[in-house]
């Protein structure tokens, strides 16, 4: 796990990433910062679309960006997420599913807000009883 000092720095990276959010409809910006095994940080922000369903969350933007840059799924050390919320912001269900598959269940997730509130958790804690790749390894027979 990374130290609390690193959490603060990673949360500040998420605050910086939030500045790039494309949010013409909701005005609700979210930033994410994904720490890879080499110590590099990959920024993500939410990107809205008028059709809504093509909108992409900050967490998925950061993860997809890191993978597109050549980092392997499961090689990430931590993810921080920040929003302008009363308490620490939490990822949506779709982001939690993507995090499970591409980050791993034990990866630390640091939830924060612009007021400095912080909550530390893991992907597994965010998505208990998750359906993942291992569930596809043993298909059940209908006979």
Written account of the structure:
A five-stranded mixed beta sheet has the order 2-1-3-4-5. The mean pLDDT is 92. It has five helices and five strands; from the N terminus they run αββαβαββαα. With 143 residues, it is α+β, with helices and mostly antiparallel strands.
Features:
143 residues; alpha+beta; 5 strands; 31% helix; 22% strand; hydrolase; cytidine deaminase activity; zinc
Quaternary organization: single chain
Give the CATH superfamily: Cytidine Deaminase, domain 2
Tell me the distance between the termini: 45 Å
| Rounded average pLDDT | 92
Would you identify the CATH architecture?
Answer: 3-Layer(aba) Sandwich
Largest sheet: 5 strands, mixed
Q: Kindly report the CATH topology.
A: Cytidine Deaminase, domain 2
Shape: globular
CATH class: Alpha Beta
Strand order of the largest sheet: 2-1-3-4-5
- The helix count comes to 5
Offer a concise description of the structure.
The chain has 143 residues and is of the alpha+beta class. It has helices at residues 4-18, 58-68, 93-103, 123-126, 134-137; strands spanning 30-36, 41-45, 76-83, 108-113, 118-122. It has one domain (4-128): 3-Layer(aba) Sandwich (Cytidine Deaminase, domain 2).
């Amino acid at each position: 796990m990374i130290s609390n000092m690193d959490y603060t720095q990673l949360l500040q990276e998420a605050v910086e990433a939030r500045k790039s959010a494309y949010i013409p409809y909701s005005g609700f910006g979210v930033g994410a910062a994904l720490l890879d095994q080499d110590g590099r940080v990959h920024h993500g922000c939410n990107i809205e679309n008028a059709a809504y369903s093509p909108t992409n969350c900050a967490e998925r933007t950061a993860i997809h960006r890191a993978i597109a840059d050549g980092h392997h799924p499961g090689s990430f050390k931590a993810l921080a997420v920040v929003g302008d919320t009363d308490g620490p912001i939490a990822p949506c269900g779709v982001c939690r599913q993507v995090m499970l598959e591409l980050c791993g269940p034990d990866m630390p997730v640091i939830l924060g807000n612009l007021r400095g509130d912080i909550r530390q958790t893991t992907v597994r804690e965010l998505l208990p009883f998750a359906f993942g790749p291992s569930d596809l390894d043993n298909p059940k027979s209908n006979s």
